[in-house]
Design goal:
Elements (H helix, E strand, L loop, with lengths): L1 E5 L10 H8 L3 E5 L9 H8 L4 E3 L1 H6 L1 H7 L4 E5 L7 H12 L4 E4 L4 H4 L14 E3 L6 H9 L4 E5 L1 E2 L4 E2 L2 H11 L6 E6 L7 E6 L11 E5 L5 H8 L4
Parallel strand pairs: 1-4, 1-5, 2-3, 2-4, 6-7
Antiparallel strand pairs: 7-12, 8-9, 10-11, 10-12
């Protein structure tokens, strides 16, 4: 059995009761170590779960060979920061399991996709989500333009194994090179899901490095007056 378990956005206690039960019953527990960053250490996870947790990189998960082999006769857990399906890699893993007739189950959790609701922006008014990579690319700017009156969530690049995380200020600089208007008001969020998340609403030109991670950037579209009132509460 292969269990894909979302463990939320913040710390060891964000896992669901159902997810924790599966972890405690597992023969092996892996933690994908490439899509986001928890606000606790691996040691803290292991102590709370009562299990050894093995961090794995994208290549291990995308290949899937070891996971499928073990799941054929043991209880295998893959822990995923946020929700299971925030990354397409994990969808591909379920397809692989189906193809190989490996039993699997999904245990969902909160992700950045719904945690951004704290900003006051209505979730159903978001358009296509985009990513802003470390390398040069115009894709994010093109998607922001195509979303037009809809809000755009921009996920920022990261390489956790190198402790490398993109600042929203760097993301904005990249957008500016593509033609983004720096007088546009944006929303910067950091450490969503924690007790004290950081949320800033101001013109893009005012965004400075925060040095707290992970971060995301939102480009608001057409604002309902309630959305505007909510955002003003985060104005700087």
């Amino acid at each position: 059995m292969l269990s894909l378990i979302g463990i939320g956005l913040n710390d060891e206690k964000d896992i669901t009761v159902k997810g924790l039960e599966k972890v405690k019953a597992a023969d092996y527990v892996y933690l994908e170590n490439y899509t986001s960053k928890l606000q606790c250490s691996l040691e803290t996870l292991e102590k709370f779960y009562g299990k050894a947790v093995v961090p794995v990189e994208r290549e291990f998960v995308e290949d899937g060979t070891i996971l499928m082999s073990q799941a054929g006769y043991q209880n295998i857990v893959l822990l995923i920061i946020g929700d299971v399906f925030s990354a397409t890699t994990h969808i591909a893993l379920t397809m692989m399991a189906k193809e190989k007739h490996i039993d699997f189950e999904i245990i969902n959790n909160a992700s950045v996709m719904n945690a951004i609701g704290i900003t006051g922006l209505e979730l159903y008014k978001f358009g296509k989500t985009t990513s802003i990579p470390f390398h040069e690319s115009n894709t994010a700017y093109d998607i922001i333009k195509s979303n037009k009156l809809l809000h755009t969530l921009c996920l920022l690049d990261l390489v956790p194994k190198e402790n490398k995380f993109m600042e929203a200020s760097e993301a904005i600089e990249k957008l500016e090179k593509s033609g983004f208007n720096m007088k546009t008001k944006v929303v910067v969020c950091a450490q969503l899901g924690s007790k004290n998340p950081t949320i800033l609403y101001t013109e893009a030109k005012n965004i400075k490095p925060l040095n707290i991670f992970p971060q995301c950037l939102i480009i608001p579209g057409d604002l309902h007056f309630i959305e505007k009132e909510a955002l003003e509460g985060y104005s700087k």
